[in-house]
Amino acid sequence: xxxxxxIKHLFQTSYENNTGxxxxxxxxxxxxxxxxxxxARKFPNMAEILCPNCDAEIELDDxxxxxxxxxxxDQEFEWKGESVETxxxxxxxxxxxxIKAMSHGMHGLGGLMAIIGLFSGWIVIGDFAKITPFGATxxxxxxxxxxxxxxxxxxxxxxxxxxGIIFMILVLIAVCSQIxxxxxxxxxxxxxxxxxxxxxxxxxxxxxxxxxxxxxALCSSIAAYLLAQIGSLISIGTDGGFPxxxxxxxxxxxxxxxxxxFMNKELLSE
Length: 270
What we know:
By secondary structure, this protein is of the alpha+beta class. The chain folds into two domains: 4-86, no CATH class; 89-269, Butyryl-CoA Dehydrogenase, subunit A, domain 3. Helix content is 57%, strand content 14%. It has helices at residues 4-16, 23-42, 87-93, 98-117, 158-193, 200-208, 210-235, 247-269, and strands at 46-50, 57-61, 66-69, 76-79, 123-125, 129-132, 135-140, 143-148, 244-245. A hairpin with a 3-residue loop joins β5 and β6. α1 (4-16) runs antiparallel to α2, α4 runs antiparallel to α5 (158-193) and α4 runs antiparallel to α8. The radius of gyration is 30 Å and the shape is elongated.
């Protein structure tokens, strides 16, 4: 919005140089100045906020306070002006500490392990078979053979295939949740450091849903392991050896649990 000083300078310039201007040009400058001045008085500085009911972006006067009605959801909300610091702003104002650094590291490690887990064995049966998110692999006398879950329907292993497909879906949910959490975490950190500018809605979502995505990754990983374990016991039994979790999946679950622990410690410290 042009300032009053700029408008004043425009008028002074037009007045001092009016001998070189046509009448039409002087009138044009005058009307332009009047429009700018009236708009400057009519529209004060605005603050963009998020409706606490529907998360829609709303513009209010930066010095406004009181009860307002959202034009999108018609619900009332209270706004106390920019003097009230939001949770996200409080988080951004806090420098990174040891808990946040550990949480960053554990979630990064968890993301890496979740991706590796897509191609690793979760359940080991004896010394010759393993269950992965995309099927079963058998190694015998140096010969390896793999079969996907969907292929097992035609081999008379429908029950194991059903367990395997649900197991695969849970692993994919865990991986996607972990990746989304890392994106949210990076977004909040970069906004905090001033290296990224995002909309108020995006910053609010990144701050709010960090806990949820970390929890979903943990719960989906645990559920995937338990389903694979139960499915192996029911469908294969213990003839070839008792199905047991691999070393990798034990480390994965420990990492997922640790990162969620630090996520809660991080929120408590904010």
